[in-house]
Amino acid sequence: xxxxxxxxxxxxxxxxxxxxxxxxxxxxxxxxxxxxxxxxxxxxxxxxxxxxxxxxxxxxxxxxxxxxxxxxxxxxxxxxxxxxxxxxxxxxxxxxxxxxxxxxxxxxx
Amino acid sequence: xxxxxxxxxxxxxxxxxxxxxxxxxxxxxxxxxxxxxxxxxxxxxxxxxxxxxxxxxxxxxxxxxxxxxxxxxxxxxxxxxxxxxxxxxxxxxxxxxxxxxxxxxxxxxxxxxx
Lengths: 109, 114
Description:
A: mainly beta; five-stranded antiparallel β-sheet; 11 strands; 0% helix; 57% strand; globular
């Protein structure tokens, strides 16, 4: 059975701190996407990771992919309140995505 | 960037009503479109995959007679929730796939059945 897990599911952190969100998936995939969702909104694309060892950074967020370990990470550096949202990872299989359960991040002032 | 338009953004209607949601790719042709449902504080669950000119492929547990999908052109797919009931209340999101690269998501439709 295809499973995608995220850890943690809920994260409350202080502004200025660093933290990492983990995404594990059970079946090999060569591509993985990270999305952000604000309450009541649709998905906003953050990163597309296309190969093993891929690392991408945008602002305070950095994502990496290890296809052999079936693991992706989303690292938050010096968090700010504007990063509060739910973050989903989604490995790609064919044209389809399988979404993780999401990590709800709250950054406290 | 690629834009997917989803309409309406919000629907409130009485139980027993049928509701149609449209998903349009505005600047590319989408051979495949996807329909997702998201309950509060949960992840997105794929309902069906819609291919232009052919029947949609439904995920296990999704009633095809309840959720009618039509993909009549390369830029338009519609989802009709027939005889909607309160348990159908949810956030419905479509996405369109241009053939290469990532899916592009619509803004979602919040459906509330009274």
